TrEMBL record:
InterPro entries: AAA+_ATPase (IPR003593), ABC_transporter-like_ATP-bd (IPR003439), ABC_Transporter_VariousFunc (IPR051782), P-loop_NTPase (IPR027417). One of its GO terms (molecular function) is ATP hydrolysis activity. It comes from freshwater metagenome. It holds the Pfam family ABC_tran. Residues 17-242 form the ABC transporter domain. PANTHER family: ABC TRANSPORTER ATP-BINDING PROTEIN ALBC-RELATED. This is Unannotated protein. Keywords: ATP-binding, Nucleotide-binding, Transport. Transmembrane segments: none annotated.
Length: 249
């Protein structure tokens, strides 16, 4: 599904995503140990790790939804959570929530207009058709099944312009056609020059990236290319130390 993204914020000459010595604690319990990494404009990255590894925490900090205990995150040179960063980054959460009194179509209109997209209707119709949701446009997404909620969140993430796309476990709950539709949308985003970071164990996506970042127990344990590594084993174990040519931590 090829489409042109409009009203995209103009990038500055810096990293698309810069994580500088970021850590997050909940009381005395560390959720994310100090870590640093940079992501360049146009990169396509798989972020992997078991439940509790820190993936969601890192994503939410980057999206400006969670304050780090230390360190900072910048989106195209602007602090996470700033007006520019919120305009530049689209975040699709793993457990989406919706307004009780808005239909799916009204959600799409709200998000599109919030981000300055006036001619949104055709894009919305295309997204709903691609995701198999066109017949559900007037229904309330807060009453949908897990899979339909995930598809709805994907549509909302793509209705708006973005420079950086962060997606947290988007394949969970999707049927085969939904997974294929999402892979198409992610490919289109990359082709349009967006930076794409996806937290996932979905091998059909991981095999399309050139860089894998792995977390374990809140720590960065691998950040490297997929060249010459057993991607399937890396996804299953997140234990690349001593096994691969990339940078193990």
């Amino acid at each position: 599904m090829s489409r042109e993204r409009r009203n995209k914020p103009e990038p500055v000459q810096t990293h698309a995503l810069e994580v500088d010595d970021v850590a997050k604690n909940y009381g005395d319990a560390p959720a994310l140990n100090p870590l640093s990494l940079t992501v360049e404009h146009g990169e396509r990255i798989a972020l992997i790790g078991h439940n509790g590894s820190g993936k969601t925490t890192l994503m939410r900090i980057a999206a400006g939804l969670l304050e780090p205990s230390q360190g900072s995150v910048k989106i195209a040179g602007h602090g996470a959570g700033s007006l520019y960063a919120r305009a530049a980054l689209s975040f699709i959460a793993d457990n989406p929530t919706f307004y009780d009194d808005l239909s799916l179509w009204e959600h799409l209109e709200y998000i599109a207009r919030l981000h300055g997209v006036d001619d949104w209707e055709q894009t919305a119709a295309d997204l709903l058709g691609h995701l198999g949701l066109y017949e559900r446009a007037d229904d309330m997404p807060n009453r949908f099944s897990r899979g339909l909620k995930q598809k709805s969140a994907i549509a909302l993430g793509f209705i708006r312009p973005f420079e950086v796309l962060c997606v947290d476990e988007p394949f969970v709950g999707l049927d085969a056609s939904g997974k294929e539709a999402l892979l198409d949308l992610l490919a289109d985003a990359s082709e349009n020059g967006a930076t794409v970071v996806v937290a996932t164990h979905e091998l059909s996506f991981v095999h399309t990236v050139s860089r894998v970042v792995a977390l374990r127990d809140g720590a960065l344990v691998y950040d490297g290319t997929t060249q010459g590594i057993d991607v399937d084993r890396l996804v299953r174990t997140e234990d690349p130390a001593g096994e691969h040519d990339g940078e193990a931590h």
